[in-house]
Amino acid sequence: MQRRFQLRFRRQIKKSQRNVTEISSQVEDGIENLLFKRFNRLREVQRFVFSWILLLVILISGLVLQNITLSNYYQTVKTVPGGTYKEGILGEFSNANPLFATTNADVTVSHLIFASLMKYDSKGALVGDLAQSYEVDAKGLNYTVHLKPKLTWHDGKPLTSEDVLFTYQSLQNPDAQSPLQNSWKDITVSATNPQTVNFKLASPLASFAYNLTNGIVPKHILESVPVADLRAADFNNVRPVGSGPFMWQAIEVTGSSQKDSQEQIALIPFNGYNAGKPKLDKMIVHVFSSEKELADAFVAKTITAAQGLSETPSELKNKPVIQVHHFPLKAATMVFFKTTTGVLADKSVRNALVQAADVPSITGKLGYPSRLVREPLLQGQLGYDKAYAQPSFDVTAAKKVLDTAGWKIAKEGVRYKGKDPLSFSLSAADTKENKIVTTILKDQWHELGVKLNVQLQAPNDFQNTLTYHNYDALLYGIAIGTDPDVFVYWDGSQADVRSSTRLNFSEYKNATADSALESGRTRLDPAVRAFKYRPFLQAWQQDSPALGLYQPRLVYLTHGNVAGLSDGPITSATDRFANVEEWQIRQAKVTN
């Protein structure tokens, strides 16, 4: 039995071996016939296969190129919301509170954080910001301002007339020591309801609405701070809360000393701003202590824009990516003659100096187009009358004026009256533009027989010169604005040492001019107002208390285009932000 099982098992093994051998033989024959023998045939069709592969590559490449071409046709690069805007300015930041902001950096940050009742739009017109509307009574004594509905502060609290009332009562308080206090004397402010504020004036003032452009501060945060401590409150530079287009985020100060210090104030958009949320993701105000540092940062592209440079850095000139914006300022650059002392107290000398100044030749050297200033009001302004413009350039006539007045040519071409030389000093800030102007004036007046001593001063020294009227003549620019009320610059009361502003730099006093200035600013009817100003213009023309030169401009440099930024006339430097909520700098492809 066992023997039989062994024999059967052996037969099975041999049978399996034969089957495996047969299968292996069949597989080998199949590989040989189906694969290796066909390799020889591949050579016969390789040209055909290669042609199809090449055609396929061409078709795919054409499809890709077509998509790229059509994409460029149907899409364009446009500015879109987003991005961080880095604003570089000169100065020193210390206080964002609009009740106290004075430096260039202060007012820039304050303007971005705090909204005001009224503001200037991108065309320079006065429009409502927090105010929806306002009306004036027939006597011009009561201004009623209506706030926009649903106004809020950055912290979400409602903004009402109580905040407006608190703001103006604070700056009227002498203990606050606000530089705006003098503008708000004898004005009574009241809140008649949460949406309405009333301003009662002691006498009519046609330009009053322009006084409503200062920022409003929150009562719910500052009412607990003693008025005398408002200037030093942490609110001012640690975490101010406003209602403007941007909210305070943080401040970073670098540098070991005041000379090399730099400050960066980071601001983020306010979703609840009454004109709409800003389109920028962030605004960083970068404050530099020197013009060189500002220029270096702009060249290095660490900032988006620069305000405070007189011209484009040489490394970037003629590069199309650099945008140079010229904002004409509603201001007047003049030479103010101190009429109370020295040789300039002589009206004939002042008249001759005006006639001997070739103003167009001066403005032609500035490097930018500018409008001439020929009287105390600007061209196009209410009350401006070309009949009262200062005399045109006529050096021959100017010499005759001095001859008649007894000023005779003596040694070295300088005129004398008796033993007194016709000589005086001209003070100005030490800037490239002022160097150009003073150099030309010195040459022109030398031909007249005048010895001019030019004194270009550093910022701090020049500020002291302004404050104490320590000069014979002054080259300076005064902000005039849209309204023709120039009372503070030419009324005799503003030359008095007791005046809080003392902005009458010529120390000009003329009873006729004073009366006209008083009458003109109290008339609401434009035609009547213009008529009232005529005696002032005539007196100014005859007395020559100053030499009108030109309207200055604000130079603003940007890397690339800033959508929404337009070069319109502005009243002050911060008005470049008139529609900052619309600015865009980020670019992306969008479908048409």
Topology:
Elements: H1 2-74, E1 75-80, E2 84-90, H2 104-113, E3 118-120, E4 126-128, E5 131-136, E6 142-147, H3 161-172, E7 187-193, E8 196-201, H4 219-222, E9 246-254, E10 262-269, E11 282-288, H5 291-299, E12 305-307, E13 322-328, E14 331-337, H6 347-355, H7 359-363, H8 395-404, E15 408-409, E16 415-417, E17 420-421, E18 423-429, H9 432-448, E19 451-457, H10 459-468, E20 473-479, H11 487-490, H12 511-521, H13 526-543, E21 546-550, E22 553-559, E23 586-591
Parallel strand pairs: 2-11, 2-12, 18-19, 18-20
Antiparallel strand pairs: 1-23, 3-4, 5-6, 6-8, 7-8, 9-10, 10-11, 12-22, 13-22, 14-20, 14-21, 15-16, 16-17
Helix pairs in contact: 6-8, 12-13
Task: Describe this entry's structure for a reader.
Helix content is 32%, strand content 22%. The chain is α+β, with helices and mostly antiparallel strands and 592 residues long. The strands form six sheets. It has a seven-stranded mixed sheet with strand order 9-10-11-2-12-22-13. A five-stranded mixed sheet has the order 19-18-20-14-21. A four-stranded antiparallel sheet has the order 5-6-8-7, covered by helices on one side. The longest helix is centred in the first third of the chain and has 73 residues. It starts with a helix and ends with a strand. The relative contact order is 0.14. The model has no long low-confidence stretch (mean pLDDT 89).
